[in-house]
Amino acid sequence: MIEQPIEVTNRLGLHARAASKLVRVLSGFKAQAWLSNGNREINAKSIMGVMLLAAAQGTTLQLRLEGEDEAAALAAVIDLFERRFDEEGE
């Protein structure tokens, strides 16, 4: 199991398009994935769950991954967040 804090740095936060990109990335991995914001923990492969976190820019989320390809899934999520969901040109 891997646990990693991850900061939402894109200007619009985890809105619908960003949440969709995150779910799409994680769906390519076998590892189970959860995100938490305080006391709320959601399935990070669920777009509705991700959107319910209402994570604005500057929010630090806790990412938890468990499964055979958890390290690769973590690398892909970190890359997506570091690229700010490819939204900086918008």
Automatic annotation (TrEMBL):
Any one annotated GO CC term: cytoplasm
PROSITE patterns: PTS_HPR_DOM (PS51350), PTS_HPR_HIS (PS00369)
CDD domains: PTS-HPr_like
Segments passing through the bilayer: none
Pfam families: PTS-HPr
PANTHER family documented for this protein: PHOSPHOCARRIER PROTEIN HPR (PTHR33705), PHOSPHOCARRIER PROTEIN NPR (PTHR33705:SF2)
UniProt protein name: HPr family phosphocarrier protein
